[in-house]
Design goal:
The chain is mainly α. About 55% of the residues lie in helices and about 0% in strands. The chain has 20 helices and two strands. The chain has a two-stranded antiparallel sheet. Helix 12 runs parallel beside helix 14.
Length: about 350
């Protein structure tokens, strides 16, 4: 999206509710701020003039067929001391990048003052982190902290590539222990970024991987309202990703009290509709099934009924429209959706 475009963002909760949910659905949403993420064409990025402004710049061109060439498809441009030869930086290996090369990439990342260079280096590091051995090496070299430092980079595309790199690194249990400390910053990126932006999508992918097990799910307790709000204002890709996180969280019984008490837009129920994209509807039904499996005591249910905008009132209370909407979905043309609806109703 261009620099001059005005992109809607998550705004003040009551203001947005007036648009998407109507009266009686005031819930926490976030600031409407203009701006957008930078989209870059890979080919043009690869051919741009790059390199740190230094007295001894160097361009390390990858050998055709090398692992790094297959991983990134980009040349690595970075400064190096005069006494370091390229053969010491790039070493052909049958299955992995040379540890020295990863060190060099991390050093280049820290010293680069050129946004396109930072993007290319982060892209290469992120793609190399598809290999478990490199996930471990990057962690051992202090690379997680170095990479995560660019979550606050002023250039949106650098932040996107940072999230993508952390997402691959997060596929490693030991790495998750270090990445968890950045959850508040990742949530802030979701809140403050343009709706449907690559920044929001990258951040949600990272939270999806971090919430696959219940070890760090408690860190997302305060994000339930944000995730539910995204469902009613975002496109299909972002809805799917937000629902992946919600399904992960709702699969943990210890999280259910926090989920049902969270403020929720009343219009979430309107998504249970035959016109909703099947990929979204299937995950929404899985989320609803997890909620329906939760059983509240009479006392807790009475307390929740007094919380006008909570998810319990919106989806689980007797006054909710969910049941009637589920019945309508029994005639959905998708057999898997019919099956999920039947399981919930019975």
């Amino acid at each position: 999206m261009g620099d001059g475009s005005i992109t809607p963002r998550l705004g003040n909760m009551k203001a947005l509710l007036g648009i998407v949910a109507g009266a009686g659905a005031s819930y926490g949403l976030y600031k409407l701020i203009s701006g957008g993420s930078i989209k870059r064409n890979k080919k043009s990025a690869a051919t741009e003039s790059a390199g740190v402004r230094s007295s001894q710049p160097c361009e390390v061109t990858l050998k055709p067929g090398s692992l790094l060439a297959r991983v990134s498809g980009l040349d690595v441009v970075c400064p190096r001391p005069v006494d370091v030869a390229s053969e010491d930086i790039i070493h052909q290996s049958p299955g992995n990048l040379d540890p020295q090369h990863l060190k060099m990439l991390l050093t280049c990342l820290q010293t680069s003052n050129n946004p396109p260079d930072r993007c290319r280096i982060l892209l290469t590091l992120g793609n190399s982190a598809a290999f478990t051995v490199n996930q471990n090496l990057i962690r051992d070299f202090g690379g997680i902290q170095i990479i995560a430092g660019f979550l606050s980079d002023p250039v949106a595309e650098v932040r996107v590539q940072t999230l993508n790199a952390l997402n691959n690194l997060c596929m490693n249990i030991q790495n998750q222990e270090q990445i968890k400390v950045y959850v508040p910053q990742v949530l802030e990126l979701i809140e403050m970024s343009p709706v449907n932006s690559d920044l929001q999508l990258g951040a949600l992918r990272l939270l999806t991987n971090l919430s696959v097990t219940d070890k760090y799910q408690h860190l997302l307790k305060e994000s339930i309202t944000l995730l539910l709000s995204l469902l009613v204002v975002s496109n299909e890709a972002l809805q799917v990703q937000a629902l992946k996180v919600l399904v992960n969280l709702s699969s943990n019984p210890d999280m259910m009290d926090d989920i049902v008490q969270a403020q929720a837009p009343a219009s979430v129920v309107l998504l249970f509709d035959a016109r909703t994209a099947p990929a979204v509807l299937l995950r929404l039904l899985t989320f609803a099934g997890n909620l329906k499996a939760w059983r509240a005591s009479a006392q807790v249910a009475d307390e929740l009924r007094r919380k006008q905008d909570c998810l319990f009132r919106v989806m689980l209370d007797e006054s909710s429209q969910l049941h009637s909407r589920l019945v309508q979905l029994l005639s959905h043309p998708d057999g898997e959706i019919q099956s999920q609806v039947s399981r919930i109703l019975t």
